[in-house]
Amino acid sequence: MRFLLVFLMYFNLYASTLHLATSANPSRLNPLLATDSSSAEIAGFLFNGLVKYDKDSSLVIGDLATAFKFENETTLLFTLKENVLWHDGEKFTSKDVVFTYETLISPKIASPYSSNFRFVQSVEAVDMYHVKVTYKEPYFKALETWMMGILPEHILKNEANLMNASFNTNPIGTGAYKLKQLEHSKNIILSANDDYFEGRPKIDEISFHVIADPMTRFLMLKSKSLDIGSIEPMQFERQLSEAFFQKFNIYEEISHSYTYLGFNLRLEKFKNPKVREALSLAINREELVEILFFKHAKVCTGPFLPATQAFNPDVKAPTQNIQEAKRLLKEAGYDEKKPFTFEIATSNSSPIRPYAAEILQHQLKQAGVVVTLKVMEWQAFLNMVVFPHQFDTVLLGWGLSPTPDPYMFWHSDSDKKGGFNLTGYKNPIINKMIEESQSIVDREKISGMWKEMFKIIVEENPYLFLYIPNSITTVNKNIKNVEPSLSGIWHNYIQWEKEEIQ
């Protein structure tokens, strides 16, 4: 409690600081290497891509580019804005775009984002403010690829090892905010960029407080030591008073993410499809959603999000069938005397997932499955379990783009160091479908292929798709000009203002 009071007393002194929380230290504030949610969130304030989605995530619009056009199916031309400065005052030019591309495809770095550029044949600086991108063949995500943050060539051109460069914790970008302070396990402070090409943000600073404990984050939010925060359904339904709702606006929408239990398919015990099907039939997804979310979520039925062109509404979630699960396990060689045993690994960065793991453990026990649990701090979980593939199963989630890219998660080529095919899923049919789909620009045709992939992947159970949570965001009523949209609240954050505290 004393810790909480210190936060309250100290941070209320700064009327033009937006106080946020992050559950873990960012690993690398470099858009090419920001693979964890904390790093990606903070890097988003520091860097820009050539393009971005509009506020409803329905159209691609310019960001660092003032204009773009397809000269033909394989040639994309960008005209860059001429009023963009890096945080150190140097001009942004086409050289930076070429440098970013060459860095991303270099063997010197391991980045899952490099797969987005595999169809690029060349990137050419036509002149200081024009870039020509030539593709080997038509690519359905040619524009979205260039939402990747651009790096400064003048700072990094002589960097021998970008993976371990000081730039990753002292970044120089073009974004609306600059990095002012990075104190691991304490504070990350961003300051407004006076020279931002879209105009200086109206809030002077953004302070990210690194708070691993979910309850501490919740208490800080209740005390108004945080201006914006996500709250869990149980907190929303049972733990907030009327006074809280007088201080905060609530914005709720289905999130662009899902949670899954992923099997390590490299392990012999998970290679039998009967085992994976049995485990899927042993769990009750509806019960999971009801207990954890009080109806502020929905059951996830597959790898692509609802309301996108890739979603297959004909694929339904399995209904729990304990007897059938036991029968399949027996056929696979498991029974009461020789139970199937495995471990679920997850992180405590989410207050929900450790409870979800316990519920899964209980449900699977009904089918005779013995489950042990491992709950870890986020960075340790990523570095010791997830990326080195040292797990039986992982309880994790993905945040996804409105335009899915199955290659990143489901193609066998993405089962590599730094890749997002964490489970080691390999299916030659899916590989071929992904490869064929990527050169299709007809959205109706590619939609049909995505839906077929959706069906095949679900049938093979590389993941147990669990739930899609609602995003419940609370915003201090002192923050003005917040305009909720289909993409959320952050699209116009440089226009936000924070009222002075009296």
List keywords for this structure.
502 residues, alpha+beta, D-Maltodextrin-Binding Protein, domain 2, Dipeptide-binding Protein, domain 1, Dipeptide-binding Protein, domain 3, 3 domains, eight-stranded mixed beta sheet, four-stranded mixed beta sheet, 20 strands, disordered N terminus
Compact description:
With 502 residues, this protein is α+β, with helices and mostly antiparallel strands.
What this model shows, in words?
- With 502 residues, this protein is α+β, with helices and mostly antiparallel strands.
- 28% of the residues lie in helices and 24% in strands.
- The chain folds into three domains: 2-27 and 38-45 and 164-253 and 477-498, Periplasmic binding protein-like II (D-Maltodextrin-Binding Protein, domain 2, 3-Layer(aba) Sandwich), CATH 3.40.190; 51-162, Dipeptide-binding Protein, Domain 1 (Dipeptide-binding Protein, domain 1); 257-470, Roll (Dipeptide-binding Protein, domain 3), CATH 3.10.105.
- It has 15 helices and 20 strands.
- The strands form five sheets. Strands 11, 12, 13, 14, 15, 16, 17 and 18 form an eight-stranded mixed sheet that branches. A four-stranded mixed sheet has the order 1-10-9-8, covered by helices on one side. Strands 4-5-7-6 form a four-stranded antiparallel sheet, covered by helices on one side.
- Helix 8 (273-282) packs antiparallel against helix 10 (322-331) and helix 14 (428-437) runs antiparallel to helix 15 (443-460).
- The relative contact order is 0.15.
